[in-house]
Amino acid sequence: MAGAWMTFVWAFVVGGIICAIGQVIMDVSKLTPGHVMVILVVAGAILDGLGLYDPLIRFAGAGATVPITSFGNALVHGALAEAERHGLIGIITGIFEVTSAGVSAAIVFAFLASVFARPKG
């Protein structure tokens, strides 16, 4: 039972650290949230390219797969896997193959939110 609780603790700690890094970047610089998001995606891509993000996922679970850095990880993972199978064109197709479900879900849920939520303005 203690092992399961530690999984939750480490997921919370690692996810919190990733989010805190993004918040610190916004607080100490004049970068917009969009710029910080791009920095975190690129950081996740670089960490995956260096072979460091998968061990982080094994250690922290959802703490590493939920933050935006995981999107960069997914992009590189898909591109490298398809590049091995299909060469140069696989880089492009791999990016779309791995991320299409998440992007599609985001579009559908954003649409549904816009249908049911009426912003005050």
TrEMBL record:
Classification via NCBIfam families: spore_V_AE (TIGR02839)
Domain of life from the UniProt record: Bacteria
Organism the protein comes from: Alicyclobacillus macrosporangiidus
Pfam families linked: SpoVAC_SpoVAEB
Keywords, ordered alphabetically: Membrane, Transmembrane, Transmembrane helix
Signal peptide coordinates: none
TM helices/strands, residue ranges: 7-26, 32-52, 59-81, 87-117
Keyword Transmembrane helix: yes
InterPro entries linked: Spore_V_AE, SpoVA
Protein name listed in UniProt: Stage V sporulation protein AE
